[in-house]
Amino acid sequence: MNTAKAQLGAVLAAGGPGLAYMLDRTEARLAEVAEGHGAELARHASGTLAAGGKRLRPMLVFLCAGGEGVGEPRGEGNALRADGAPDGRLVAAAAAVELLHMATLVHDDVLDRAPLRRGRPTVFAAGGRLAATATGDLLFSRAFAELAATGSADAVRALSAASSALARGELMQRADAWSDDVSPERYLERCRLKTASLFEASCRLGALFGGRAGLAAAVGGFGERVGLAFQMLDDVLDVSGPAERTGKPHGTDLLDGTVTLPLILARERDAGLRGLDLREAVSDPTRAEGICDRIALTGALGEARERALEHVAEAKLALAGLDMADSRRRALELVADGVVERYA
Amino acid sequence: MNTAKAQLGAVLAAGGPGLAYMLDRTEARLAEVAEGHGAELARHASGTLAAGGKRLRPMLVFLCAGGEGVGEPRGEGNALRADGAPDGRLVAAAAAVELLHMATLVHDDVLDRAPLRRGRPTVFAAGGRLAATATGDLLFSRAFAELAATGSADAVRALSAASSALARGELMQRADAWSDDVSPERYLERCRLKTASLFEASCRLGALFGGRAGLAAAVGGFGERVGLAFQMLDDVLDVSGPAERTGKPHGTDLLDGTVTLPLILARERDAGLRGLDLREAVSDPTRAEGICDRIALTGALGEARERALEHVAEAKLALAGLDMADSRRRALELVADGVVERYA
What we know:
The structure is a homodimer of 344-residue chains. Chain A has 344 residues and is mostly helical. The first copy, chain A, is built from 16 helices and 2 strands. A two-stranded antiparallel sheet of chain A has the order 1-2.
């Protein structure tokens, strides 16, 4: 955790005061949204907001825009306008991607019946499943409202593509639950849908509103690969990570039947795991820990981690030829590295 | 039911072949959306789609546009273009409002743990709560994608305002559950949020894409009043209606603590009802029927119905001064009347 915090600090340092300023504006905007749509949302959303998070997606928006904050001269298309004021559309985009992310977390907590997130009661725990489902829907709606206010249909298109992908990823995950026949390719497609798509959209929106529309596809590709690595390493951590790091016990994915890369690779190496009926095996939850150990013994964790690192390397490579300030490229590379450091 | 079907037939007759054609196009578009976003959505959404419904909201879109189908000459801004082809943006808007409506139904069925809707298994029943929540989210996302494809940020704004309102309405309903202190005004505001807002948006989108942007506010006001009446009469029916008409037993709202206008008015008239602890009273579900009868005895149902009819009358009045073809006005009046007939 301290490593991750140090890494975040490095990104902020590379991004400069402009990045920190834009992130502050985003916090303020998120608070406005939470307070401006009825007493019920204010009550439910303020906790989710205050619980914070790394604001990784807003950070990607700003770093993929041009910007004073990342070492480029003031001027049109910069995160800070020539007069030093923030570009409202970039703040709107950053708020939108974070609102969409929050909406999915609130819905996930209903589905997982989760009592806590980041040490605070979830909306589900505090308000029940009806209030939490509606709160998620409202955060979702406000994400689109933020972008509609910018007047850019292209931006709305990028967000609706991402939000569709998130939902498709969830559906795919349910369809594949408990399956003994998930290929690495299908797993990767699921990661792309349920995680990488929003990273990609964040980068695209930054380029779109940051006067760098020509770079949208390229930085989108960077974001997608970072997102893939993020999800893949998350899945490694679910099997390997100490509970005090992840905030949840080993093998949470196993317990709800989610088949991730470590298990897929381990099954290729260990016939006993291949023959295992997962649903039956974890009917006694204490056995999940043992299955995690057995996955680890096959070396599958190392290989899954290696594959994730390849995506990080490709993400950084995708930045190499782009027409952007070195300081900005450096900050984006630090974000990519940060995804790895989080799990170091 | 037969009355409602006859009324729908009258609207279609008034709308002419153009309206029927546009509604057919909308069905085709909805089927494309259901099939074009992964096997999981196709499986889950096709049932929801096939279950149909009155397509009241798409109908409002087309009737609030100019249009060949409603007796106006062919030409720019008509639902049918000069060459007789449909205006893709109107079909997109009609699909969007119906997708958003479907998304809320799918989520509602999760929250109500409903086994059937319109005689078919719900997505919740067929796929479980995780698949149903994600299916709702995906339908939601596709609604915004439909409008984003039109390139109109104004249209996205109208839809996000409506979808925010729907969610706020749900939150308000949860906040007021079991309350003995809901005013008629607060009840009306809830109806506006959770039902009338999408009727309003449907009418606005029709005007916007149908070359009648100047009428957007006025037809939006019409839609809002029709939506208010629709919800108010639905709430009357929950207390009074025969189960074979409503498809659910008497007093469903009472059982989940939803305080509607009939109860609010009855409490003003019957001190015994006023003193009743609702939660305790329906802890034995068979008692809901008795409470419905007691509400009916106060005359509250008649008054609630009268108030709904006032909104229908105002809706029709709002059309009187508008610059639109008589045939189109007549078709919209029939929609307003149809809301009442549904409960005759």
